[in-house]
Amino acid sequence: MHDCVIVCSGATFDVISARSHAGDIETFALDGCGGVGVAGDVPAAAASVFRLYLPLCLHAGKFAVGHLGQSLDGRIATSNGASKYVTGPGDILHIHRMRALFDAIIVGAGTVAHDDPRLTARLCEGDNPVRVVIYIERTLHENFQLFQDEAAPTLLFCAADTMNGATRHGAAELVGIGRCAEGLSVRAVRGALSARGYPRHFIEGGGITVSRFLAAGCLDRLQVTVSPLIIGSGRPAITLPEVASLADGLRPKTRRFDLGDDVMFECIFDA
Ligand SMILES: NC(=O)c1ccc[n+]([C@@H]2O[C@H](COP(=O)([O-])OP(=O)(O)OC[C@H]3O[C@@H](n4cnc5c(N)ncnc54)[C@H](OP(=O)(O)O)[C@@H]3O)[C@@H](O)[C@H]2O)c1
Fold first, then answer.
1. In terms of domains, do 171 and 203 share one?
2. Which protein residue's CA is at the shortest distance from atom 13 of ligand 1?
3. Distance 204 CA to ligand 1 centre (A)
4. Residue 174 burial by CB count (10 A; 0-12/13-18/19+): exposed, middle or buried?
5. In terms of DSSP bridges, do strands 75-77 and 183-184 run parallel, antiparallel, or are they unpaired?
6. Same-domain check for residues 160 and 138
7. d(CA 110, CA 132)
8. CA 139 to ligand 1 centroid distance, Å
9. Which domain holds residue 228?
10. Is any atom of ligand 1 closer than 6 Å to the C-beta of 193?
11. pLDDT tens digit string along 157-166?
12. What is the CA radius of gyration of the chain?
């Protein structure tokens, strides 16, 4: 294991040390939009891992990254909810690494209902994050794996007026918050998680949930992995209120990564 030095321009610190499992590491300099430039003779595998993950690790405090894996035509699942797998093994490994790097992983009720996911970081080293489900009415069955397996602390955010004195949903803890125009305020969800000591959030889907975080200005970054697949119908990735002009669309700075046959675009809103 070797030390490496990261020079951060305009960040809260000038120089930090980090370690790599990958071998010899040289110098990495953060560019203006939070990317990592690699200087020196660095093994390619180590360089690509550091380029992707170091900027995400350097954010102390509140930080939120959304992720969706979509087809070329912008679908994350078929109309009946089948999504295994839109993207390939490179993106799946990336998702598990992201889980291990964040305090809390957030999904919507549709993802639990269709995928019955475990939301653990089992394909890489690292701790499982706290698992968070947003579901206003709390009518999801308690038998879904993440409400039963106790693999990590699990929180179900619901409308406070649906709790009727209940504090648990299976093995998950119920967290009631007030209703708002969008259902439950994603800003309030983020605030409640931060107050519990979980400031770094990975929003893993589905499209409705990630879109709500984006619309509320609650994402620092959005990772969209595009697979060379055309579904032609199905559940959409990002959906935002209509705009009349392309000038009103979002054109964030991006970083781009090859993940096997897929390409991931990371949109940077925190630059
Ligand atoms: N390819 C990928 O990256 C990916 C990732 C995850 C999931 N998926 C697939 O995507 C599909 C599910 O995605 P989806 O977009 O249909 O649904 P989703 O985002 O998983 O869940 C949406 C539902 O969660 C609840 N919810 C989320 N945010 C809320 C808020 N702020 N306030 C109140 N309720 C909130 C709402 O439930 P109610 O409307 O019932 O109140 C909402 O309809 C599944 O087929 C899954 O397999 C794909």
1. yes
2. 206
3. 10
4. middle
5. unpaired
6. yes
7. 13
8. 14
9. 62-268
10. no
11. 999 999 999 9
12. 19
pTM beyond 0.85: yes
Dist. CA 262 → ligand 1 center (Å):
23
Q: Is the CB of 86 under 6 A from ligand 1?
A: yes
Rounded to whole angstroms, the Cα distance separating 62 from 53 reads 17
Q: Give me 243's structure tokens.
A: 């705009």
Q: What is the pLDDT of residues 89-147, one digit of tens each?
A: 999 999 999 999 999 999 999 999 999 999 999 998 889 999 999 999 988 999 999 99
Same domain, 104 and 4: no
On whether both 114 and 53 belong to a single domain, the answer is: no
What type of residue sits at position 146?
A: L
Contact 87, 225 (CB under 8 A): yes
Rounded-to-integer distance, Cα 223 and Cα 204, Å: 10
Q: What is the residue-averaged pLDDT of the chain?
A: 87
Q: What does the block give as tokens for 27?
A: 């110098």
Atom of ligand 1 nearest to the CA of 83: 47
Q: Which atom of ligand 1 is nearest to the CA of 68?
A: 3
